[in-house]
Amino acid sequence: MESVKRDRVKERAEKHCKIDECEGFRCIGIKERFSQDANANFDRIHELFKESKENGIYDLLLEAEGEYDVLLPNGVFGAMGNIGDDGYDYYLLVRTDEEPSEELKNNENFVEIIVPTAKWAVFECIGDARKAFEQKWRFIYNKWFPSNYYEEVMDAIEIEIYPEGDRTSESYSGQIWVPIKERKASNVPNFTGVVRFIMCTVMGLVAGWLAASAGGVTEYTWWAIGGAAIGAVAAITWNKRIKQRKALEEENK
Predict the structure, then answer these.
(1) CB-based contacts of 24: which residues, under 8 Å, 6+ apart?
(2) By C-alpha distance, which of 222, 227, 220, 221 is closest to 203?
(3) Domain at 2-182, CATH class
(4) φ, ψ for residue 165 (rounded to 5)?
(5) What is the pTM of this model?
(6) Where are the domains of the chain?
(7) Do residues 91 and 156 touch, judged by C-beta distance below 8 A?
């Protein structure tokens, strides 16, 4: 039964993206440290692409690009990695097995990254790039990951594909590539509504009794009843939220 449920959730997850396995590849490029300011970072990403074209870095990357039989589109792409509390590294990269030019290697921001074989969730971003990418990232982490059996591969780069074109156009089309793996089955018991109600009520009753005992109260009855009532309300709320989530999952089928 659990495997059937997992298959249904996977099918629903793949309605919002394409999931493919991509062979590992080597990348070279440049990096810049970004803060956690999303609005400023989005502007800086596009400035970075523009500056790389003006200072010749973009052309040097294209010259170094190799031929790969992988799903990732050709050309220079953006990527994020080395994420920490202070921000993250943003990269402009190309795939290659070739040695980079001396000019590129001597750049103080030069990087070389080995991307291992992985399963990727590929999301389309249609419309004005700023709005489309921002909304898609929010959807991925606020809705897509919490509602299926996939989780992000930590310590791996996330990729943004910005094809040539008018990025403010409503017909502009980009992509987000996120490395994923199947989430391990939860060890938390799948309690039924009745069991959750009984469990929370009993726990509340015991908590009330212990609170009365610790406070030196000799009449435990009302404390225990009060604790049980709080536990019952918690169980009802718990069951209600589970029903709401199931209803939402049914709507997304």
Answers:
(1) 114, 115, 116, 117, 118
(2) 227
(3) alpha beta
(4) 145, 180
(5) 0.69
(6) 2-182, 193-251
(7) no
Q: Which of 192, 185, 187 is nearest to 238 (CA)?
A: 192
Amino acid at 34: F
Sign of CA dihedral 182, 186, 190, 196: negative
Are 49 and 129 within 8 A, CB to CB?
A: no
| Per-residue tens of pLDDT for the chain, all 253 residues | 445 455 555 555 567 799 988 888 999 999 999 998 888 898 899 999 999 999 999 999 999 987 765 567 888 999 999 988 889 999 999 999 888 899 999 999 999 999 998 999 999 999 999 899 999 999 999 999 888 888 888 888 999 999 989 999 999 999 999 999 987 755 444 456 666 556 656 665 566 556 556 655 556 565 456 555 665 566 567 666 666 665 555 544 4
Which two tokens mark 235? 């169980």
